[in-house]
Write a structure and sequence with these properties.
This protein has helices spanning 8-23, 27-33, 36-46, 65-70, 82-91, 129-138, 156-164, 184-191, 213-223, 225-232, 238-255, and strands at 53-56, 74-79, 97-101, 114-120, 140-151, 195-207, 262-273. It is an alpha/beta fold and 274 residues long. It has a single domain (8-160, 168-208, 263-273), classed as 3-Layer(aba) Sandwich (Rossmann fold). Strands 3-2-1-4-5-7-6 form a seven-stranded mixed sheet, with helices on both faces. Strand 4, helix 6 and strand 5 form a beta-alpha-beta unit. The longest helix has 18 residues, at 238-255. This is Methyltransferase domain-containing protein.
Length: 274
Amino acid sequence: MTTQTTDTDADAALKQRHRTMWASGHYDRVAREIIPVLGERLVASLGITAGERVLDIAAGTGNAAVPAARAGASVVASDLTPELLDIGRAEHPDADIDWQVADAEALPWPEASYDVVMSTVGVMFAPHHQAAADEVVRVLRPGGRLGLVSWTPEGFIGRLFATMRDFVPPPPAGVQPPPLWGSEAHVRELFGDRVEDLAFERDHVDVDLFRGPTDFRDYFRDNYGPTLMAYRGLTDQPERTAELDAALDALAAGADEGSGRMRWEYVVVSGRRR
């Protein structure tokens, strides 16, 4: 296993671009209208109970942090993007959650601070996978549980990122595609022998929000940060914009099981720190 290093200035610029991307659009709508079940599913699979110390990494607006708090856990919701935390705080004023700005690749907490570390389609978007995985393990106490929900490379969101790849600038050296976190071989390599009882369970979200391909494309262009930024990068390029329109329409049409219904595959990863 190798440790990735990044130039300080370049890394700071990269993280600022990530903050800007996720603050753009309305990711809170996506979390609330399409994937609310994911947080509940993860908390239930982890068996989180009252009094446990729980860290939700890349928590966004609290998709998993909120149900963990409702289970009685002591929850910290961390995210690189303060705008998302502000929305979560405002939407859930009664939730006993400590909302903290933090970089998934450089968490501010001491080693072995938490009984449970989790992330719902969040930590997968940290650009340097090994650094993020190292932090997951570092802040988890020995015997503590980890739980991650990630989109798979083969599933709809994995294919969405593959589709958009041709329309955005290439990432800096060392940055890996987010859907790799949905690959069992990749995750096993990231954690190595530091995590035991690793388990992988594939499932899917049933999505029936969109009437058809154009409705899906418009929704993601307006609300989902990565798609929105792809379109912004094509400003004053009408031909390329039309190509991206057509590519996203084709993706959605190919996934349509009738009347706009789709199944978006994800994987639930669980394990324990040795």
